[in-house]
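step 4 of 6: structure.
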Amino acid sequence: MRMLDYAMSFFGGIILFYMLFVIISYFMMFITAMFDVRKRYRLDHSEYDDAHIDAFYSKPVSLLVPAYNEEVGVVDTVYSLLNLRYPQTEIIIINDGSTDSTLQTIIDHFEMKPVKKMIREHIPTKQVIQVYESAIYSNCILIDKVNGGKADALNVGINMSKYPYFCSIDGDSILDEKSLLRVMKPIILSDGEVVAAGGNIRIANGAKMQLGSVYETRLPENYLVIMQVVEYFRAFLMGRIALSKFNLVLIISGAFSVFSKKWAVEAGGYSANLIGEDMELVVHIHRLIKEKKEKKRIEFVPDPVCWTEAPQTAKVLRNQRRRWHQGLIESLWKHKKMTLNPRYGAIGLISFPYFWLVECLGPIIELGGYVYIVAAFFMGSIYYEIAIALVLLFIIYGMIFSVASVLFEAWSMNTYPKKRELLHILVLSLTEMFWYRPLTLLWRCEGLFRFVIGKSEWGNMKRVGIAEKGKSA
Amino acid sequence: MIHLSVSFLAIVIVALLAILGLFTVYLFIQREREASFNKNRKSYLQRSTQLWNVYLFEEGLFSVRLVPRSRADVEAIEIIFLSYLKNIASPAIRLEIKNFSNRYLKEFYKKDLASKRWSTRMNALYRIADFGMDELLDTCRSIEHKKISKEERFQLLKIYSLFQPDLFTEKLKQLQDGYSESEYRRLLVLLDDDLFIRFFDAFQDWSLNIQFALIDTAAVRRNAPYVDKLKHLLSHNNAEIRIRALKGIYEIGIIDEIEIYLPFVSSDVWEERLMAAKIFKHAPLANMYTYLEQLLQDENWWVRSQAAETIAEARQGGERLQQFIQYADDEYAVDMAKETLMRKQESR
Amino acid sequence: MGKIAVIEEIMGEREVKQYFETWLETIIRSRIPITAIFLKAVTSLHGSDEQEHHVQDHVTFFLQSKIRKTDLLFQLSDGNHWGIFFLQNSAVEAKAFLNRIFSILKEEQSHPIELKASITEIRNNDVTFEALINKNKQRLADHEQSSWTIEEIADYRMQPIEIVKVSIIEHNEIFRQVLEITLNQLDLPHFTFDITTYEDGYSFLEMDHYKTGQLHLILMNDILPRKNGFEILHNLRKMPNAKKFIIYMMSERNYEGAMLNAYEGGVDEYIVKPFNLRLLEAKIKRTFARFWL
């Protein structure tokens, strides 16, 4: 019994301590983000946008669209890219050996004609079968290649691209017409000191769109999707913005990010044998920057928007979260020597420990907290106090932070302008900690577990590719 | 201690919830106000778009109904003016907009410039430049003494360059660093030719970013006199400046004495060789062929590729490449020649 | 017998009538006028029939040697009038032709022939062959007219007014209105505009407005929500009667590559924003002025 007592207080203490730590760091990040975002509220961007539509002020960008079984979404994605307000782009669609009619859909829709093109192999990839060029849009290219996973498809795109920057866009996402202009802004204004930039992701479920244009945003009906909306707000306000301010970003979304080709190639492109290839590239570039002692940055840009379809069923969501978490750990593990290594500056000393502790191990501790509360309830009154303290901390961490994120988002960015919709999200965000949070924690722990036991599974995991999200639509 | 912290936490939570509750209420009121603001703006647009059109295009009579009475009206006018300015190039309309803004919008923007909110000040500065409100120049100068952000300072520079070029020159000298090349380009591109030439004459006095921007801006201006200025830079000791000058000359496309570009064929910097291969496009192939053949066998892919393209684009270039493939033994160069020829045939 | 051989080679009224009626139909469709010249020999009042025939044959022979392959010469049944149809020519060229042959005839010493003529430019199809001939005969019937007179008949010069469809595809509502007003006020001879506006590419392509055979001026932005200008361009240019579309593309992208793509894709004009509305008007006027000879 004494052993159990010790164990309970020990774990209780750890969990309490962890929760306090996370709450304080989230709070600080939230405040940082708040000032940063609110500053820009109602700022008119048209001045910058209108000037930079002129090729004289901007740099050309290659847009890479990897597609594996995306026959439903890819045409809309390409349309949204064709409609971008940007002076000089090329669109490279990479069909990663799809087994559905993705290839034919694209060929028919954009009148793709086979052409001979030599590809410079900066990064070794699987074999390219055929290159096509659109008869309608001369800057639109389709590459048909042997299946090799999303990372490999992107690498082929990098090899093919002729511009100094490339932007990766998932084959089921849609870009706002000005988003490329805005995501390139830090790169242009820093004369290339920013070597990679990621945009903000928004959930497209519920939005009305046609031919690559979103023309009405509405809150989705599905509770699971609404919770993901809240989660995106949270991640955005209590993480990305603050981290970006201090060049500590380790994740920019693979669904929409721009990289300097030179640096990406130097990092060996996307790692074909990892799940979280987008995160790995960011970490790798950070590592190169520090190793070469260059003054470069990676930024998250809060404003430019990429619309993406979120999973609508628990099954697909579980799959996604499991994979994300596994990907995260893989990337951290691959570059584990950066952890607490002063050679890598703030990235090694702050980002890495933070990601290991909060992002990677956090789910276990948090889940432990939930277990602790339930256990305390059965084990009698002596643990009540710790349990109650924990519950209260969970309320702050889960409920209050979520509500605050939703409110702050509404105040500064106003994604869902209708009052009824706002109320709807607010009420739902109050319930997050009771069902959604534990579920996602569980799934993330699964991902962690998979990382620990199953390297063998990697091989076929990568074949799932990006189609996973598409299936839910 | 834990007991204390529980009640403490409870208090914290209640307090936070209360704050959030109040904030929600505030937010909802704010929404309401925004909605009515938008309604007013829309009603001005519906009322006056037609009137503006008549006024600006048909030299119609000025109507008092055009005069803004509220912030919402000002925003509506901004929408109308910007639609005109961005789509239509007409000095007459520009002048009308300037006069109207100087007269009826000045006070609004003056107030905005004094605002505590950064985005409000920025928007006002944008509009002052867009609408050409020169009567606010003094107000602009006065805010410069306050602590202002980099973005505001940039916008001020732009305003000076529009209204008072001398002041602009002076301020730019003080602010040589801190802005990116593309920002300097945006400032320089607006200058008139005289001032621009003066900037160029003082080339050495500027910081590197401004120097780069000067070269690139000269190139887009496509003016013959700038070619001479750029030629002077070909002997500069900074390679980047030489490369950009070459690029600028290529873009302007006026090549009078080819001799000065010949040394770049054997430059140590591959970008210079690449630019030389580009510039040779503007000269007859017969004179340039020996040099281009040398560049076609360059160690750098880009140089080879450009040399092949330059040859292929010239008249009888195809035949030259064919011959080259026959007798040359540089494998890479032959490959490049073959690929270029193939592309050329396809595009026919 | 040689005399008959010459006369056989030249067409008579009846045969020409059929040709004329076919040509008449092409005038409006091809926007190219036909011009008719009628010539009458001014003979001395007391010449014998034999002499008259001789003069007539001579005129026929002379005219045959002067016309081009695209011109059609015929002789009216009264024998003393000749007609020439100039396809794809206006009165200006016909007049130049007359001046040229008259000056040759005036120089001619051996066989003095004197002629007078009338010119009719036909720009619509409200005319019958008979009416045309009668009108010209009447005009040349006046005996007081001196030799070498050139009369002009303007009755059929009126061009029909053609309705041109105009589609403005532009996202900015205010500018769209401005364009509509500008084009509505544009005063073009012989054309009227039937203007429709659209705010995106999809709504334009959805309407079947563009599928008729009428001349169609399209003024559109290159970047548009839901199907952009390049796609519209491609769709229109691959239609069977693509020539009827006059496509103006407006763009805010100041980038030569985009401009090249646009011209290669088949735009008639590429205008970088902001542009001068007067310039746009002038360009449109010029485009339409080219349509009629």
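step 5 of 6: annotate
 - DSSP finds 17 helices and no strands in chain B.
 - Chain B touches chain A at residues 2-3, 5-6, 9-10, 12-13, 16-17, 20, 23-24, 27-28, 30-31, 82, 86, 118-120, 122-123, 126, 130, 180-183, 185-186, 189, 209, 216, 220, 301, 339, 342-343, 346 (CB under 8 Å).
step 6 of 6: archive
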